[in-house]
Amino acid sequence: METVATTYRSYVLGLLDQDMAFDDHAAGDPPLLLADYRRALVAVLALDPSPLLLVEGTVTPVEAAAFIAGQRAGLDAAVIAIGDGMAPGPARPRATTALPAPPGGHGGGPAGA
Predict the structure, then answer these.
(1) Would you say residue 28 lies in a domain?
(2) Which of the four pLDDT bands, split at 50, 70 and 90, describes residue 96?
(3) Is residue 5 part of a domain?
(4) pLDDT score of 95
(5) Dihedral of alpha carbons 8, 53, 49, 71, sign
(6) DSSP symbols for 20-79
(7) Straight-line distance from the first to the last Cα atom of the chain, in angstroms, rounded to the nearest whole number
(8) Under DSSP, is residue 85 helix (H, G, I), strand (E, B) or coil?
(9) Residues 59 and 84 in one domain
(10) Residue-number span of the structural domain to which 59 is assigned
């Protein structure tokens, strides 16, 4: 049984394949525009964990916290993968690009470099 996530994953991977093929053999309009990439990245980066719907007595506070932590770990892994894909490395930001300091942090770059 295909899930909604699996359907979207296949759809997006297909679009990305078409976009890469367009780079090699441009003809007509590109399948994706820069604005499409930005919109998709912002959508992923804006995600927050969903709270667990508690039914009295069936889920403990510790289980609920673990549920949220698991979601956060998955979202953080996605953000890290995006960052790794966009930069030469967490400790080596592009020399030509000034990266903003992380919120509440010091220095510029994903790892506070």
Answers:
(1) yes
(2) low
(3) yes
(4) 53
(5) negative
(6) HHHHHS--SS-SS-HHHHHHHHHHHHT--PPPP---TTTS-HHHHHHHHHHHHHHHHHHH
(7) 45
(8) helix
(9) yes
(10) 34-97
* Crossing angle of the two packed helices 61-86 and 34-45, in degrees rounded to 10: 150
Same domain, 42 and 66: yes
Instruction: Measure the CA–CA gap between 113 and 97, rounded to whole angstroms.
Output: 13
- On whether residue 93 sits in a domain, the answer given is yes
Whole-number percent of the chain with pLDDT over 70:
75
Residue with tokens 């000034």: 98
59 and 86 belong to one structural domain: yes
- Tokens coding 50: 């969903």
22: tokens are 């367009």
